[in-house]
Amino acid sequence: MNNLTKIVAAILVAAALGLAFVAWWLGSRPPPPIAAVPAAVIASTSKQYEVVVAARALVAGKAIATDDISLVTLPINPAGAYSQASSVVGKTPLIDIGAGTPITESGLASGLAVKLADGERAVAIPVDEIVGAGNHVQAGDYVDVFFTLKQGQESEKSQSRLLMSRLQVLSYGAAVIGTATGSGSAGAIPKQQTAQSSQQAQSPQQAQQVARTAVLATPVADVNRLLLATQNGKLMLALRNPGDATTPDPALFPVPTAVLTGKKDLTRDQQQAMKQPDNQAFAGMEMSGLAGDSKSASSRKPYANSVAVQTGAAQIRGANNSGTVEVIRGTQRESVAF
Q1: Best label site of 84, 87, 89, 171, fewest CB within 10 Å?
Q2: Residue 231 in contact with residue 126, Cβ under 8 Å?
């Protein structure tokens, strides 16, 4: 081994000893103190939220009862979740909700459907300035629906009558019941208001003036009546005071002819079920029953070809063995098979 190799080996040994000393020195030092976490940071990371969840499995289409939900505390606040049980009770899930699942706005029914009472359907009818009482009809109003029908070219055959009474208007044009129309003013308008903001403030009124449809809350048994009147006649909406609860009594008038009749072998319970609104709507209604008859029964002309019980109108001489009878009408004789 030459001198150069010895020198390099000595240097490496010295470096190893130096590194070993540094490692020992670093390992023998006490650890640095840990800084205390501010209380505000701890509070923010441990924040809890009260969320309404399903206490049991909820079925779609069935209204939520008080016992179906519970209020729990969660470390997260889901989007659209409710924090009060009163905000959920009575609402209807659109989908099945599992037990323990937070109830959110997107999972509950909303819109005009929740404005309907049991047994009602939302039906849209065409309107204009005349039909809508000069466009003074607003969402939430109660109206009477009048019906005008013109039969043929003769004016004496035209009819006009009250079709349905005290229907609530769910929407009129762009205005929907339960939503702000923007027609009111919450405070003074600044003088420096721009022309654009003035135009936007008037847009709800302009939208109401050009309304072309109105949605009425209609009992299901009367939907056929409203549809026939819409397609075959002219409707007119008459505004009424919301406190006026007077309505006509349909029991005082003949029942319109139904399209479908019940079976002949129905039991008593089934006959009573035929009177339910849903079954009445399924049975349908003929146009003749909707239009009615402008003439009374006493003024109708007798059927000319009938064998009426009138003096000298017809005489039945008798029957022969061939199964016919001889009918005498004035000076005419005719043999009619029976």
Answers
A1: 84
A2: no
